[in-house]
Design brief:
Blueprint: E1 3-8, H1 13-23, E2 31-37, E3 42-48, H2 51-57, E4 68-74, E5 89-90, E6 96-104, H3 107-116, H4 128-137, H5 142-150, E7 155-163, E8 170-175, E9 180-183, E10 188-191, E11 203-206, E12 212-215, E13 220-223, E14 229-230, E15 235-236, H6 241-245, H7 252-258, H8 260-268, E16 272-273, E17 276-277, H9 286-290, E18 294-299, H10 301-318, E19 322-326, H11 327-330, E20 341-347, H12 353-364, E21 368-373, H13 379-383, E22 386-389, H14 402-421, H15 427-438, H16 440-448, H17 451-461, E23 467-471, H18 474-490, E24 494-498, E25 515-520, H19 526-538, E26 542-548, E27 560-564, H20 573-590
Parallel strand pairs: 18-19, 18-20, 20-21, 21-22, 23-24, 23-25, 25-26, 26-27
Antiparallel strand pairs: 1-4, 1-10, 2-3, 2-4, 5-6, 6-7, 7-8, 8-12, 9-10, 9-11, 11-15, 12-13, 13-14, 16-17
The chain binds fructose -6-phosphate.
Fructose -6-phosphate (F6R) binds next to helix 10 and helix 18.
């Protein structure tokens, strides 16, 4: 995820900025840059790739003169990870430099307006509009100019701004993106993350949404969104550096679980506009879809499980036949694929060797390819005809959480979009699901609020040996992911079973005390699932149910139940997955496992 830093003091700014950026490296990035003002000009340095490239270019900051500046590490969103898209971005007159985290949602309109007024753009980013707006509104008053500029912005942003006419001053603005001001002695700082600050100061001010601050070496002045001065409390941080990187959480996995509402918002919001689903630049309208006879989904691990959800959704809504295969199988099985096939490849990293090989194989047979990927410009994104990015931000824990749920969110958007393009859904049902998708981030926030209850249940039910996850339809797809999550981080064996399949053999393994986690969120098959719960209870199983709130019938059968917030049955997979991720996390914690780096697993499997 992008990171920003700022410094003003009496020392040379560039080494401070590079040091701050180094401490943000763990978050992932693909380019970096700094801009420093020396009172006469703003010097800018940017480099693609590792931060070391920027250090080399600036002789570790020594070649950039000035005591006031801003820095940025970029995780590409709008535009490829190139030097010209790297921040800071400059105004045409060279008076302003800007770094930005977040998304300026109305950047396209602003860009058009600014171009028509003669401003020249040098990048594909949404951020560059901010630099030109500052130039447009500049009247010699830095604060007033910033206020006028932010009044034009929609979306989320943490901004850092320097202006040549105010050589000791940095301005920073916060709206729905993290921002912290570091309070020093004769020098002050800001950053998107405390990790960039705590080697210099542990005294910080947390800005709230809509607030902005003017920072000079001796003074920090904070304003509300109307420009009125306000006083802020100084907080002392006593986290270790390691704890700071994890945002105070014990593990990256837990942090990433908690980040899901925001990751889902970033993935969904730009694609739901004025009652319609808008799928970026994907060229798959009615004409192209009519040429598609079948869809093949391929992926590995959790991404494959997201694809399983996708299969149910696309077949149910768009009525296109979907086949799904793990990539290591698809690539070697001589599949029936031609120019009427759409291959959907799913991958968080975009670098998984088997998935890449499957795409190449299917392309060679004439298939059209669509990738659902998290990392911009990764190999899978590059070799596919179309790309839909999951805007989950970097995932550091080996076990995927927000990577998976954002993939499922993209499948929900895609299935509804296909159904609409092909005229296979009523207006009323489209509206219901459209609104349901928009509400997913809020439902997930409520699912996260179950954290304490799930922690207690994980203690109570902490399985010592094999357990079962059972469900039907989309609940079954969710079982596959829940079971993998538990296995990979807690090393406890579990099986995901289609509930109706149990009695075809495996039910022999259900004995006194065996834990069965029964997913019962798919409303149409709820009664059938109750029958399956009865079957396992009759053989002595302990049953932990997962059901939609209000569905109290399950209380008659399950020993305990986790109630997830109500959603349409086609959209419940995401909120129902969250307590199961938490369950896996707390069971692994009980067992003393190395949660972020489970044994024998790699984050990105780039070998066959
Ligand atoms: C499980 C997990 C893996 C990945 C799989 C595919 O938590 O993370 O199963 O889902 O290795 O990786 P990507 O999505 O990067 O292709």
């Amino acid at each position: 995820m992008c990171g920003i830093v700022g410094y003003t003091g009496s020392s040379s700014a560039a080494p401070y900025l590079l040091d701050g950026l180094k401490r943000l490296e763990y978050r992932g990035y693909d380019s970096a840059g700094i801009a420093v003002s020396d009172g006469e000009k703003i010097s800018q340095a940017r480099a693609k790739g590792r931060l070391q490239n920027l250090c080399d270019e600036t002789n570790d900051g020594k070649s950039i003169v000035g005591t006031c500046g801003i820095g940025h590490t970029r995780w590409a969103t709008h535009g490829a990870p190139t030097k010209s898209n790297a921040h800071p971005h400059m105004s045409n007159d060279g008076k302003f430099a800007v770094v930005h985290n977040g998304i300026i949602e109305n950047f396209a309109e602003l860009r058009e307006e600014l171009i028509s007024e003669g401003f020249v753009f040098h990048s594909e980013t949404d951020t560059e509009v901010v630099a030109h707006l500052l130039e447009k509104y500049y009247d010699g008053d830095f604060k007033r100019t910033v206020l006028k500029t932010i009044n034009r912005l929609e979306g989320s942003y943490a901004l850092g701004i320097v202006c040549i006419d105010f050589p000791n001053e940095v301005m920073t603005v916060k709206l729905a993106s993290p921002l912290i001001v570091g309070v020093g002695v004769g020098e002050n700082f800001f950053a998107s993350d405390v990790t960039a600050l705590i080697s210099h100061t542990r005294n910080v001010m947390y800005l709230d949404d809509g607030e902005f601050a003017s920072i000079t070496p001796d003074k920090i002045t904070v304003y509300d969104c109307m420009g009125a001065e306000i006083s802020k409390k100084i907080t002392h941080i006593n986290w270790s550096m390691e704890a700071a990187e994890k945002g105070g959480y014990d593990h990256f996995m837990l942090k990433e679980i908690m980040e899901q509402p925001n990751a889902l918002k970033a993935t969904i919001e730009p694609r739901v506009k004025d009652g319609k689903i808008v799928l970026d630049d994907v060229k798959l309208g009615a004409a192209e879809l009519k040429n598609i006879r079948n869809i093949v989904i391929t992926a590995c691990g959790s991404a494959y499980h997201a694809g399983c959800v996708g299969k149910y959704l696309i077949e149910e809504l768009a009525r296109i036949p979907v086949q799904i295969d793990v990539a290591s199988e698809l690539r070697y099985r001589n599949p029936i694929i031609d120019e009427h096939t759409l291959l959907i490849a799913v991958s968080q990293s975009g670098e998984t060797a088997d998935t890449i090989a499957s795409i190449k194989e299917c392309k060679a047979r004439g298939a059209r390819t669509l990738a659902i990927v998290n990392v911009v410009d990764s190999t899978i994104a590059k070799i596919s005809d179309d790309v839909l990015y999951t805007w989950a931000g970097p995932e550091i824990a080996v076990a995927t959480t927000k990577g998976y749920t954002t993939q499922v969110a993209v499948f929900s958007l895609l299935a509804l979009y296909f159904a609409d393009e092909l005229g296979r859904i009523s207006e009323e049902r489209y509206k219901e699901l459209y609104n349901g998708i928009r509400n997913i981030p809020e439902r997930c926030q409520r699912a996260i609020d179950l954290n304490n209850k799930v922690r207690d249940l994980a203690k109570k039910y902490s399985p010592k040996d094999s357990l079962f996850f059972i469900g039907r339809n989309l609940d079954y797809a969710a079982c596959l992911e829940a079971s993998l999550k538990l296995k990979e981080i807690s090393y406890i064996h579990s099986e995901a079973y289609a509930a109706g399949e149990l009695k075809h053999g495996t039910i022999a393994l259900i004995e006194e005390g065996r834990l069965v986690i029964a997913l019962a969120c798919y409303h149409d098959l709820f009664d059938k699932l109750m029958g399956n719960i009865k079957e396992v209870k009759a053989r002595g199983a302990r049953v932990l149910g997962v059901a939609v709130e209000g569905n109290r019938k399950i209380l008659a059968e399950a020993d305990d139940t986790i109630f997830i917030p109500e959603t349409d049955q086609l959209l419940s997979t995401i909120p129902e997955t969250i307590p199961l991720q938490l369950f896996a996390y707390y069971v692994a914690l009980e067992n003393g496992c190395d949660i972020d780096k489970p044994k024998n697993l790699a984050k990105s499997v780039t070998v066959e």
